[in-house]
Amino acid sequence: MRRIRVGLLPSASFMVGNLxxxxxxxxxxxxxxxxRETGAKLFVVTLFFxxxxxxxxxxxxxxxxxxxxxxxxxxxxxxxxxxATPWARIFNGSLSDGxxxxxxxxxxxxxxxxxxxxx
Length: 119
Description:
The chain is mostly beta strands. It is 6% helix and 46% strand. The chain is built from 1 helix and 9 strands, in the order E-E-E-E-E-E-E-E-E-H. Strands 1, 2, 3, 4, 5, 6, 7, 8 and 9 form a 9-stranded mixed beta sheet that branches. A hairpin with a 2-residue loop joins strand 4 and strand 5. The termini are far apart. This is Regulatory protein.
């Protein structure tokens, strides 16, 4: 599996679209997906990505340890160590493909928490 570091333009911004939801390792949703290195539970957060004259919704996997307090819809954030992993699979004779996004953490942008962290 090849991971590709995502480069962002200085004009890039992100806004939280929904609260983090647990990522599961199985279709029955009985076992949490965990980070292979740290064992931290993984969550999926939908972010609205805006850059220059375009916008799109992105689902990004983030470990529980990388989710800041105060994360809620509408809050500006910046993914740190954002990677994209292209994937493809054949299921019932049909090809499915896409890109999975993963970030080490989400940093709050411009709020009191991020100012406190910078101090």
